[in-house]
Amino acid sequence: MFLWMGFIICTGVILYSGTKLSKYADILAEKTGLGRTFVGFVFLAAATSLPELINGISSVAVVGVPDIAVGDIFGSCAFNVLIIAFMDAFSRPQPILFTARPGHVISASFGILLLSLGAGAVFLSGRLPSIGWVGPYSLVFVVVYAVAMRLVRHYEKRALEEFHKEVAGEPAYAGIDSRTVYRNFALNAALVVAAAVVLPKVGEGLAESTGLGQTFVGTIFIALTTSLPEMVVSVATVKMGAVDLAIGNIFGSNIFNILILAIDDLFFLRGPLFSFTDPHHIVPALSAVAMSSVAVIGLSYRAGKKKFFIAWDSLAIMGLFALNVLMLYILR
């Protein structure tokens, strides 16, 4: 009973403070003049992925449950793509991926690449040499992440020049004091960190009490909680008509999530991270790859109409996620 109460409290804190954190990140984007499109992909994605980052570090360095950390990352990536289907329900009249710019294929493809490398690292975890206590795959994650950020930044820079009038409109937060923004950003970040530090211990207790196992709990329950900021922010931005900000946040979060695995590996001093985790983590990793691939098809094909209340690509994403949960339950 107390474990579920703790889980609900942590969920509430991350939901509220994570949403506020994202809002103030958007305000900082305007104050710094970096532009909302690029900040949505990089800074907003990093802000909404803060629970995954802190949860991962506390899981491996404090609690010592690497399965919770890895399950959270791969599960969150799958949840993030699932959010596209939820956003599609609020997109009228065209499908959400039709209204988004085709350039998101770049970030989605990098996400697929990193997730595929992660799945391969899980499969080969016991057969790869280590660099000190860190797995070689972590260095690859960092390099690919850096390349992704560079290419996306160049693409978005050209987009900013093309749509300069749209980007350089009237400031939406001109009346908000910068010091207030920084203070509130720090406060909500601290609340998210506090909840995320407690979450792995609660997840470990739920895994033991329910008999579902750390892989299933980490991939489903913990991943759902840490992905709530992305979900709330993305749906809210779609309602405001800022579709590209929402889609950029989704794929940017997935890229940042794989980088978190490299950070977790650095904090896990017992050896390469994947050598101490369940090989079943390959299931949510490949599920996220398949779901992202469907999103790329939707962005490229650009179907202009919906036959149902959501588009065919969103239905396929939902079906793949349901299959992911079923397979994890069978393998628990």
Using DSSP, what is the number of strands? 0
Global mean pLDDT: 81
Helix content: over 70%
Shape: globular
Distance between the termini: 22 Å
Strand content: under 5%
Order of helix and strand elements from N to C terminus = HHHHHHHHHHHHHHH
Q: Could you explain how this protein is built, in words?
A:
The chain has 332 residues and is mainly alpha-helical. Helices cover 78% and strands 0% of the residues. The chain has helices at 2-32, 36-41, 43-48, 50-63, 66-90, 96-99, 104-123, 136-162, 164-167, 178-210, 214-226, 228-239, 243-267, 282-301, 312-331.
Condensed summary:
The protein is an all-alpha fold and 332 residues long.
Layout of secondary structure:
Layout: H1 2-32, H2 36-41, H3 43-48, H4 50-63, H5 66-90, H6 96-99, H7 104-123, H8 136-162, H9 164-167, H10 178-210, H11 214-226, H12 228-239, H13 243-267, H14 282-301, H15 312-331
